[in-house]
Amino acid sequence: MDTELRSKITSYVKRYILLCVGLTIMAFGVAFSIKAGLGTSPISSLPYVISEFTPLTVGTATIAMHVTLIVLQILLLRRQYDPIQLIQLPVALIFGALTDFSVWALQGITCTSYPMAWVLCVVGILLVGVGVSFEVTAGVVTLAGEGMVLAVCKAFHVKFANAKVGFDVTLVVLATILSFLFLGKLTGVREGTVAAAICVGLTAKQVNKPMKRFAQRYL
């Protein structure tokens, strides 16, 4: 094995390790948001609501949603779909399992007041933002949610920011409808959801700066 090939393999191994670390951080962010009870991030709102009226766990519902999004990408892009994006499937399985593990690991935490709920919510937002930055820095594969947004951009020639907002709003609306329909109340979508929609991206943007230097040096 020549030096160049060995270097490429080492780089990919490091990037996938970084991706797994990012997924773990994001999963704990989701778990903290659930513990806070102030609403999860838009991407997690639908799986959380589904887990509330079905036997599915949050992680399993997340996997189901990601699989659905992968199928929608294929149907939307058809021949334009790049088979390499099927790597989103094992990533979804890992992220779903990590989410359930994180929820289990934090089961001993009890939220006793509204201020404490916000503390947990902020921790969750920060962790999700950091995890997203790790995922972006790894640069090997996107989660199915981002993959769906990119597919919409490619199919309908819309800007990523507009497609992202539309995607998040769609998930929140679906979560709200299902919540009222099956639970008779609003669950999983609250002020924390709005805070996450605004602050996760801002957090990731700030973390991206040192992460770029990290990538240049180690990846």
TrEMBL record:
Transmembrane segments: 16-36, 56-77, 116-144, 165-183
Pfam families associated with the record: DUF6198
Source organism, top-level taxon: Bacteria
The keyword Cell cycle is assigned to this record: no
InterPro entries: YczE/YyaS-like
Keywords: Membrane, Transmembrane, Transmembrane helix
Presence of keyword Membrane: yes
Protein name: DUF6198 family protein
Organism: Pseudoflavonifractor intestinihominis
